[in-house]
Amino acid sequence: MSKVATMKDAVADLVRDGDTVAIEGFTHLICFAAGHEIIRQKKRDLTLCRMTPDVIYDQMIGAGVAKKLVFSWLGNPGVGSLHAIRRRVENADPAPLEIEEYSHFGMVCRYVAGASNLPFFPIRSYYESDIPKVNPRIVPITSPYDGTEVYVVPPLNPDVAIVHAQRADVNGNAQIWGLLGCQKEAAFAAKRVVVVCEEVVDESVVRADPNRTVIPGLIVDAVVEEPFGCHPSYAQGYYDRDNRFYMDWEARSKDPEPLAAWLKEWVFGLESHRDYVEKMGAQHWDSLRPGDAPSGQVNYGEYA
Amino acid sequence: MTGGAGGNGESGAGGNGLGWSKSEMMIVASARQLAGGGVCFVGIGLPNIVCNLAKRTVAPQLDLVYESGVFGASPKRLPLSIGDPTLVSGSTAVCSMFELFAFYLQAGLVDVGFLGAAQIDRFGNINTTVIGDYSKPKVRLPGSGGACEIAINAKRVFVIMRQGRRSFVEKLDFRTSPGHSGDPERDRRRGWWGSGPTVVVTDLAEYRFDEATGEMTLARLHPGVSPDEVRENMAWEPKVAADLAETPPPTDEELRLIREELDPQGVRS
């Protein structure tokens, strides 16, 4: 049965007030369209998880959907700060934001533990760092085999993971190329999974290249087709990262007023991401289109 | 991401009458540290420019590893972020972040990790988390990203950052990534690859770490910089190497690569 849904319905059905939500994607394939729909539907009291909160969580936290943030690197990559989040952390303005902080490897391994049904995951990090002092969930243990001290992190099992893929079939079998981040781990760890994709393709396209399937439909609850759904993040081979948008965000989020004005114009003032794409204009999308660099083809062989 | 080197430098780019900026000298001096090649874990911001300059000058065989999951990147443009699509196209391998941190970094395949810092102390301990108290920070910085595990698991760690009294501090507000403890014998027994930074390059000078004490030691002054200027821009009295030297100035080719190819937009300043 087809799992294809609109973003509006998928978010309404699968994201609930108070949920722990992970919209993952490391620079690449960050699903801004889903974040905008969560803002538009005025979800509240979410615990937002992401390795790198990025501009999408600055928008969501600035819009008031979250009570807590779980993360490992808080910034606007190559540009500067996420000011809406900083206002809440530094000055409780307009409300406090609870934070739970790890390193990158710690966050990745929390998803790995969550996806593998393990009670914790051991890593060689955090030695002599102050991070475990401010996050008591990061704990040293001794190996029962050779006495080595390692630190363990707890599993992270989001209520919902939202991941963006280049393409998926109607059952949610999703194919990704380019940077893989920790989307696979986050999706397998989550109770509910929304796959958003640039295009829904026939199942035969997926079956012709099964090595490229990162997330199987088995764990997917809804499939949303949303072209340009990652903007200003990017989809490898489809559109470039809109670095100008990231640079301009510095001024937009520096004070609450321009941020509120941006949300009003680009999120609350629009019905859907289709409207956003139209409002941005064809010329803008043309400017982000990359040249071609196709992969060679491999031969899987026919074994009838 | 591993904390940018920028942010709080009191002495950024600018005319010094020498034909290059302090940032450019810092980038060039850092890139030369990578002579000989190997596997280098690239951070965001200045390290990104440094590693790409090294690949075009002293270390063509350098394998660039980006924490976003790319091994053997060969970027055609300077990526603004370390997750830029140009890192993927034409690279040797793309892997999940778990594989990158576990199989490449934690297993000991990374020769050099580059870190930036908002604060550093005399033993090379690094803060990229907060200025002020953690629970009520004056400035909330990005945090660790991959920095903590790079400091611990890379064979050698290079630090690149601008120098000033607010960044070269007597006591860190928060220790994000561990450096030397002050007892090298103890550090060698710690049981992890990293043993604290080996080199710190700033906009004023280059430092190494004393083998007997683990303390940062002034090794080279950049052209036009006096020992007093260095002292004025740090919160402790630095040890000075017996063979204190001057950093060779940037070559025309190094400056051309930075200005025309790697950073035409001026991210470095």
The top-level CATH class of chain B is: Alpha Beta
Cα end-to-end separation of chain A: 28 Å
Structural category of chain B is alpha/beta
Radius of gyration of chain B: 17 Å
Could you estimate the helical fraction of the residues of chain A in percent? 25-40%
Radius of gyration of chain A: 20 Å
Which descriptor suits the 3D outline of chain B?
globular
Quaternary form: heterodimer
CATH class term of chain A: Alpha Beta
The total count of helices of chain A amounts to: 12
Ranges of chain B where pLDDT stays below 50 over 5 or more residues in a row are: 1-14
Compact description:
By secondary structure, chain A is α/β, with parallel strands linked by helices. Chain A is built from twelve helices and twelve strands. Chain A has a single domain, classed as Glutaconate Coenzyme A-transferase (3-Layer(aba) Sandwich).
